[in-house]
Amino acid sequence: MPSAIVIGGGLAGLASAAALGQSGFQVDVFEARAFLGGRATSYPVPGDSSEVIDNCQHVLLRCCVNLMDFYGRLGVADRIQFHRQFFFIEPGGRTSVLQAGGLPAPMHFTGSFWDLTFLGLADKVGIASAMWAVRREHGRREDLDRITMLDWLREKHQTDRAIRRFWNQVLVSAVNEDLDRMAASHGFQVFWLGFLARTDGYEMGIPAVPLGDLYGPEEWKRLPSVRLHPRAPVERVISEQGAIRGVIAAGERQSADYYISALPFERMAGVIPELDLNLEGFEHSPITGIHLWFDRSITELPHATLLDRTVQWMFNKSGGRYLQLVVSASRSLVEMPRADVIALAVRELGEFFPLAKEAKLEKAHVVKEIRATFSARPGLEHARPLSATKFDNLFLAGDWTRSGWPPIMEGAVRSGCLAAEAVTRAAGGERKFLLPDIG
Ligand SMILES: Cc1cc2nc3c(=O)[nH]c(=O)nc-3n(C[C@H](O)[C@H](O)[C@H](O)COP(=O)(O)OP(=O)(O)OC[C@H]3O[C@@H](n4cnc5c(N)ncnc54)[C@H](O)[C@@H]3O)c2cc1C
């Protein structure tokens, strides 16, 4: 049985392990932390072990086919609940719903789009014409990685309100970057696959269980050839004569035929300095998750995007009493004291849900992920490495590698599939794991 060592138990590493584990490989996953899932994980609230929270609400769209395939390998795909309605709320509480109707793609939003109250007619006409431009230019225009999404929207004469309330609202959360820093190629990807290619591509999947329960030890029992080693940080890899010969994990030498590094980019130089990657262009973009527990229900909506304020998304985690708020590209909150972040969030919630003004806040928790994702800025695509390295038996995965997607769970899983495919090629029995995009 050929063997592989996977360094890092985030989604990229786990996806590669699951694919190889189902294809006749003995796989050992070494993860530094006590739990799996990396940036997409859950843990008990510090100081209150009775409450398990996600480090931040993670959502996917139905077009994330490789992520769903990975969940399928672990038998947990049915733990993702898909929602067909997007609720946009204006300060004051007026709510619009975007959802697909009966027409075929790309016309499927026609009815609900024209009914949105938070946009005017000129905004909507502009958005509709920009959507046709996305269809026309997708896969054809060559400068999309060199310009920002904002450049592209200005070129298409989008109104300020359409940019702020529509494009910004969808894309900043999807790509975790501001429009004036985000490569237009990423914006295209989201709108093409999520909104135009198929009528159901936009449906939002929300895990019905804590993230960690999607890839806990029980779930891996169906893949007995994958052995998990939590709390086993890889200190370094050992190379000799142009090949990787082993790793030092938790103080012990371990070896295999093939190696996949699924580390975040900032750990590469420390663990595998031999690769000498040029990561100069890589910077982080932060995400802040705000968990609020009220003494009563303040909303019945399952989720909503909140317009014109700092908080971008609300997820109703339990009966309208426990809410999870998300701020992507949250640079303005990084330096803000946690108590001020909570006060800001409660104040803003009151503008959308009047009951929040009367409710008593029982508990709150703020998670600032400063290194949430890399900043998907123009010009970076060519710097994202492919899975092959200068070592014949070492391959790279991670949401920052060249997966063809922005730094999100689907991108991480795709990179894991690509690295696993490269391992099977090197082993002389090429296998395909990556599913094609729905477009
Ligand atoms: C707050 C937040 C919200 C997000 N929201 C969404 C969302 O809604 N939808 C979405 O699709 N994506 C979202 N993302 C992005 C998504 O979480 C990431 O793209 C994805 O999880 C990255 O997976 P990865 O395996 O590439 O990296 P990671 O998850 O970072 O995995 C790397 C792993 O390597 C481990 N490691 C590090 N050093 C070592 C070592 N020396 N030895 C062994 N192991 C080591 C780490 O502990 C980690 O487990 C969000 C991210 C954050 C932070």
Largest sheet: 7 strands, mixed
The quaternary organization reads as single chain
Average pLDDT rating = 97
Class per helix and strand makeup: alpha/beta
Q: What ligands are attached or bound here?
A: flavin-adenine dinucleotide
End-to-end distance: 37 Å
Strand fraction band? 15-25%
Instruction: Return Rg in Å.
Output: 22 Å
Number of strands: 20
Low-confidence stretches: none
Structure explained in plain terms:
The mean pLDDT is 97. The chain is globular, with a radius of gyration of 22 Å. It has helices at 11-21, 65-73, 110-115, 121-137, 149-155, 160-175, 184-196, 217-220, 268-271, 331-334, 338-352, 355-358, 409-426; strands at residues 3-7, 26-30, 42-45, 48-54, 60-61, 80-83, 86-89, 95-98, 204-207, 226-229, 234-240, 243-249, 252-254, 258-261, 284-294, 303-306, 313-318, 322-328, 361-374, 394-396. The strands form five sheets. A seven-stranded mixed beta sheet has the order 8-7-16-17-18-15-19. It has a five-stranded parallel beta sheet with strand order 10-2-1-14-20, with helices on one face. It contains 13 helices and 20 strands. By secondary structure, it is of the alpha/beta class. Helices cover 29% and strands 25% of the residues. Bound molecules: flavin-adenine dinucleotide. The site of flavin-adenine dinucleotide (FAD) has 37 residues, from helix 1, strand 15, strand 19 and helix 13.
